[in-house]
């Protein structure tokens, strides 16, 4: 059954009401299709995974490139897509409203706006500016049907500002400004995660799991987390295998790296 955009958005919103679901991050049509086949209920784009597939570091994709990628990903799967829309791709509030409007038009079911600047000397936006940007995204969503899910991201821990109190203040402000879901990538401990969940309740919380994360799905669910994403970790896993295999070929001169990988026939069957 093929779902309409409005149906996907309803499905996505309902996933946040109870329980805890995993929201993996594909970077192209093939990875999205495999994740859909495996039974995941929704997917999220990854700015890093997409950038690496274009031969760029994370953070250097243009707005138009990301919009085209969002449209491509929405068309690649029957699952709802959450858009990693970075910081909104504009320094002005009017620009954020216009850019979010264009992102909504791609058919995404959710959109994340973060408060990072990309400037190592001042990695986070001032609170007032960050809140206004969430409010601007809310305006764009409300003016275009209101059914797209809005995620407010506090990037403190992700950019090296390990201040839980400020993270919580930001997330609560983003909630009040209209965010439907709150997200602070980089949280590691039970205490940090529980503090965030309790601070923004009853709004749902997204937690990022990476290689140094110690909690499993059930443990996060027990803490009250509603959704779990993995960012660029799946893309990194794929690149790791590719780089190790290619390095083995050029350094060892053999092709043993191909001995245990999935066959072309199996992949063809998965993509039929």
Give a quick set of tags describing it.
TIM Barrel; 272 residues; 11 helices; 8-stranded parallel β-sheet
**What's the alpha carbon Rg, rounded to whole Å?**
19 Å
Structural class, please?
Answer: alpha/beta
- Count of DSSP-assigned helices: 11
Instruction: Give me the strand/helix succession.
Output: HEHEHHEHEHEHEHEHEHH
Question: What would you note in describing this structure?
Answer:
With 272 residues, this protein is an alpha/beta fold. The longest helix has 20 residues, at 233-252. It has one domain (5-233): Phosphoenolpyruvate-binding domains (TIM Barrel, Alpha-Beta Barrel). It is built from eleven helices and eight strands. Helix 5 (93-105) packs across helix 6 (127-142). It has an eight-stranded parallel sheet, with helices on both faces. Helix content is 47%, strand content 11%. It has helices at 5-15, 29-38, 47-53, 63-76, 93-105, 127-142, 164-176, 190-200, 217-222, 233-252, 264-270, and strands spanning 21-23, 43-44, 81-84, 110-114, 149-153, 181-183, 205-208, 227-229. The mean pLDDT is 97. The chain starts with a helix and ends with a helix. Strand 5, helix 7 (164-176) and strand 6 (181-183) form a beta-alpha-beta unit.
